[in-house]
Amino acid sequence: QGNMAFAGKYEFESDENYDDFVTKIGLPSDKIEMGRNCKIVTEVVQNGNDFTWTQHFPGGRTTTNTFTIGKEADMETMGGRKFKATVKMEGGKIVAEFPNYHHTAEISGGKLVEISTSSGVVYKRTSKKIA
């Protein structure tokens, strides 16, 4: 697996099960509305096992998670909740346990594919590489 596999900028292309998922994890309705079909740009800077993962939302809001594979890090959820997690690398996928969902990210066919699972609801977000 290539070290710099994740580095780049990716723009939201499509998603599946957004409403079911965000309702399941308890996002407030204003945040749900704001995030629907939101052209989020995800920027990943990777230096070996160190990652800076930034999501740029329309309107200028950003969320940044900085983590090292295999070490506990301070993270923030989609809804802005802060927590600690140890991010792992499994078969080329980045895997993290969020407080109320399981999250994986991988590069597949040149696209960033992120899958979050909560109580049997699977939310999939695909972003295309733009830089």
Automatic annotation (TrEMBL):
Stored Gene3D superfamilies: 2.40.128.20
Pfam families for this protein: Lipocalin_7 (PF14651)
Record key words, sorted: Cytoplasm, Lipid-binding, Transport
Residue ranges constituting the Cytosolic fatty-acid binding proteins domain according to the UniProt record: 8-25
GO cellular component, one term: cytoplasm
Locations listed in the record: Cytoplasm
The keyword Transport is annotated on this UniProt entry: yes
Record bears the keyword Repeat: no
MF-aspect GO terms: lipid binding
Domain of life of the source: Eukaryota
Family: Belongs to the calycin superfamily. Fatty-acid binding protein (FABP) family.
Full protein name: FABP6 protein
